[in-house]
Amino acid sequence: MVKIVIQSRFSGWYSLLVALFLAFSAQAQSGALVFQTDFGLKDGAVAAMKGVAFGVSPQLKQFDLTHEIPAYNIWEAAYRLEQTYAYWPAGTVFVSVVDPGVGSDRRSVVAKLKTGQFVVTPDNGTLSLLEENPGIEAICLIDEQRNRLPGSGDSYTFHGRDVYAYTGARLASGTIQFEEVGPPRRTDIVRIPYTKAAISQGVLSGTIPVLDIQYGNLWTNIPFSLLQQAGIRYNDRLVVDIYDNQKKIFSGSMPFVTTFSAVKEGQPLAYINSLLQLSFALNQASFATKHHIGSGGNWRVQVQKQRTDHSRTKDSPAARD
Fold first, then answer.
1. Is residue 190 part of a domain?
2. Which 3 state secondary structure label does DSSP give 268?
3. Residues 49 and 181 in one domain
4. Residue 35 in contact with residue 63, Cβ under 8 Å?
5. What is the total count of domains within the chain?
6. Radius of gyration of the chain from Cα atoms?
7. Is the terminal CB of the chain with fewer CB neighbours within 10 Å at N or C?
8. Same domain, 165 and 297
9. What is the pTM assigned to this prediction?
10. Could you give the C-alpha distances from 24 to 11, 28, 196, 260, in angstroms and in order?
């Protein structure tokens, strides 16, 4: 009888330990892996990356940010990361591969953000915007002797599969810890220059980091809080100047409103987008197409509240839409 009781208790403890182990393993392998590339979906490149990640951990949850970054457009890759990182929990691993320098001596890194997410990427400017917001806590160089798909050493042009997807999956699944990615390095990174949002004597300045491409709206990096600081309120009219480097491309005025339907079809408006940043649009038309405006660090915008002294009237050339 004593033997049966002991066996029963042992069996109970053993079952509990197995259950705890399985629960811990499931939790350790429940991280999210989010892919972003400029590959498109016309061929098997993205599927190959996901297959590598699945091989590391079949339990790993895999998601897509986008694979429609314009080819070689590092700036847009940087913006899309800034646009989305905050909606993913700490521990999420982003793999961002827009890598025109693949196979060169550009560095492969994993950045840990101050909010707890990780970004696996070439250090080519992709981290430029995340460095400012939310900030980078630490960076490790990827040690390809330990963190590279086995058997891929003779491949030089698909680091997205061989290095980034493999390392990202190992990190997201808990196979390795951040410190095991490779040697730490200082948080100095390759930066893409751009105009940061600022205010001076009532004039707001910033950049157009990206277009709302489906509709041709212009999104700036000027936060709503900066407009409030400048004393700009809804239904004010704004004077807007847009530059490509030093060349002025657009100058005009428009109302600052909450909805597109506040103006007639085809008319311009300023509004706050879903990221709570100042944006410009034409109601049911493309602002970008009509005025030949693009996006990136070279596109600057200046905005101020239209004065009521009629120094700039509707008939003034600078105020025409």
1. no
2. strand
3. yes
4. yes
5. 2
6. 25
7. N
8. no
9. 0.81
10. 20, 6, 44, 50
Buried b (16+ CB within 10 A) or exposed e, 120-140: bbbbbbbbbbbbeeeebebbb
Q: Is residue 23 part of a domain?
A: no
Order of strands across the sheet that contains 210-212: 210-212, 217-223, 277-282, 268-272
Higher pLDDT, 321 or 171: 171
Q: How far apart are CA 307 and CA 56, in angstroms?
A: 61
CATH number, domain at 63?
3.40.50.10790
Please report, for residues 100, 112, 300, the alpha-carbon distance to residue 271 in angstroms, rounded to integers and kept in the order given: 35, 33, 17
Question: CA 82 from chain center: how many Å?
Answer: 3
State the amino acid at position 288 in one-letter form: A
Final residue before a domain boundary, out of 185, 209, 229:
185
28-62 confidence digits (pLDDT tens): 434 899 999 999 999 999 999 999 999 999 999 99
**Helix H or strand E segment including 14:** helix 2-28
Three-class SS state of 271: strand
Q: What is the token pair recorded at 286? A: 């493309």
Q: What is the domain range of residue 63?
A: 31-185
Same-domain pairing of 95 and 223:
no
Half-sphere exposure of 193 (CA within 13 A, CB side): 3
